Amino acid sequence: MPEKNPETHVIDFRAAEQLLAARDPRGAVKLLDSVIGAHPENTAARLLRARAFFAAAQLRPAELEFELVLEREPDNAFAHFALARTFQRAGRPEQATRHFRLAAALDPKPEYLQAARFEARDGEARDGEARD
Predict the structure, then answer these.
(1) 14 in a domain, yes or no?
(2) Range of the domain at 32
(3) What is the pLDDT of residue 3?
(4) CA gap 1, 90 in Å, rounded
(5) What element of type H or E holds 101?
(6) For the chain, is the Cβ count within 10 Å smaller at the N or the C terminus?
(7) pTM assigned to the model
(8) Is residue 69 part of a domain?
């Protein structure tokens, strides 16, 4: 196999984006492993790999990658939101709430704001909100 170079890493990153969009998260992870191996400081590749782990229901690896991204970029609202979803999916609501709120504080996107208030008790809608 030919040696990888920066151009092939860019190609692998773009191909991993396409695989994730095509619902092949394991294929995306496989491509991103070599990219991150060569460029461990590449936060974009780590964030994409975290998303792929999440999509593949590999919650612990997703959590670790999102946390690494947040160590480098503590103001990354998307990483907070995605980490919160990871905690939520893993049944860790207290940690999820914290990161949903951080995401909403950093970027008041409607989905972040809505998620930050997800803890309504007994499934009741709050403040006149309609239930799904």
Answers:
(1) yes
(2) 1-58
(3) 67
(4) 39
(5) helix 93-106
(6) N
(7) 0.84
(8) no
